[in-house]
Design goal:
Elements: E1 2-3, E2 7-8, H1 14-24, E3 28-32, E4 37-42, H2 43-51, E5 73-74, H3 79-88, E6 93-97, E7 103-108, H4 109-160, H5 169-199, E8 207-210, H6 212-223, E9 232-236, E10 245-248, H7 249-265, E11 270-274
Parallel strand pairs: 2-3, 5-6, 9-11
Antiparallel strand pairs: 1-7, 3-4, 6-7, 8-10
Helix pairs in contact: 3-4, 4-5, 6-7
């Protein structure tokens, strides 16, 4: 608000009050005194009640065209209360009073909008700071998760390569699932890191030929445990002779995980099938 309250006596003419308003560079003036406010005269009153009807501003008394139904706002009120009051009564200027009802300032809609813009700017800066902290936390957490995951994958792969001796078919199968699951978790960690890149539109795709059938096999095998003994049949119907597709393998695998995972979640019984066919050359 504007501190201090500019007032004009009720016996002045419109021209004299307008001159005072221009002198103080304000859009409204209290008629009366801070202790006895009898009305308010604003630029809107000048246009609607004086210029519009064609009255002489030099001979018309301001008390005959002022807004006598004076609304005030306590000094301790917040911005939202002021905005609701001004919007509800379609007014642009609101006198601010102290506990005794004496005027101490004037709040204009322009002042109110300026204050709200400053408040929103501070809120946006605080949110931006929180967003930066969130990105830093995700990045640090992702890096911390990568080390043990890579260790798990490395040990399992070394066992598959025979580092601990010959393994049975069941052991080889189970270790393959460990490796596949570990890589899936590693990709999820990478997805967290890619979140900020996606938000800033700097994510790059690593395109290369990918065997769609082999990828579907891995996804269906790993997600089999999600069926929880429901009567579901997961089937890979992609032809073995299907040509390789040009794609980002990790992103394509993520898409299949999401699609099949949702299908398992919302299907109680029946067939869940992944199929594909070549269109064109």
């Amino acid at each position: 608000m504007h501190p201090g309250l500019e007032c004009a006596p009720a016996d002045l003419s419109v021209a004299e009050v307008v001159a005072l308003m221009h002198q103080h560079r304000i859009g409204a003036m209290i008629i009366g005194s801070p202790a006895e406010m009898v009305g308010i005269f604003s630029e809107r009153d000048l246009l609607n009640k004086v210029v519009g009807p064609g009255l002489d501003i030099h001979t018309t008394s301001v008390k005959t065209v002022m807004t006598a139904s004076l609304l005030t706002l306590p000094g301790e009120a917040d911005i939202n209360q002021a905005l609701r009051l001004m919007e509800g009564h379609n007014i642009r200027h609101l006198p601010i009073v102290d506990a005794a009802g004496c005027g101490i300032g004037m709040l204009g809609m322009r002042d109110l909008m300026k204050t709200m813009v400053q408040h929103l700017a501070r809120e946006n800066e605080a949110l931006s700071q929180l967003d930066r902290l969130k990105d830093e936390f995700l990045a640090n957490t992702s890096h911390e998760l990568r080390t043990p995951l890579n260790g798990i994958i490395g040990i399992a792969e070394s066992m598959l390569d025979g580092a601990t001796g010959e393994l049975s078919a069941t052991q080889l199968y189970n270790l393959s699932l460990v490796v596949a699951s570990g890589r899936r978790l590693a990709n999820l960690v990478n997805d967290i890191l890619d979140f900020s890149k996606l938000k800033h539109r700097t994510l790059e795709l690593n395109l290369r030929p990918v065997s769609l059938r082999s990828l579907a096999d891995v996804v269906l095998t790993i997600l089999m445990h999600l069926t929880h003994n429901k009567p579901l049949n997961l089937h890979n119907a992609i032809p073995t002779e299907m040509v390789a597709v040009l794609a980002d393998e990790n992103r394509l695998q993520q898409i299949l995980y999401n699609l099949v995972g949702n299908a398992i979640k919302f299907t109680d019984l029946g067939l869940i099938e992944i199929s594909a066919r070549q269109v064109g050359r």
